[in-house]
Hints:
The protein is an alpha+beta fold. The protein contains 2 helices and 5 strands. The relative contact order is 0.32.
Amino acid sequence: MAYDYFISTNKNNDKVKIPEWISERDNRMESYISAGEVDYRGTFTSNELIQLANHYADIWGSAMNSFHADLQNKGLAYIKKADTDTFTLSAIYWSSGEY
């Protein structure tokens, strides 16, 4: 199964696509049905997301391609610019069309 990952604030519908910082099967993610597909979401603090992003970068290191590095940078910038500390991380099945 292929998922796209996004973070968003609870204050608006803006979503930023990120690399797979966390598996949709992580126990902090809860499943729900959207457009007939099983999608996942969880609530995280900025510190938790930054730790997940840093862990992702540590694992991939120099093997991270430019596409994923760009998503990584955009995700971290979104977190730093947000005026909240609470974010929703979503894993959307790529064929559901809900993003």
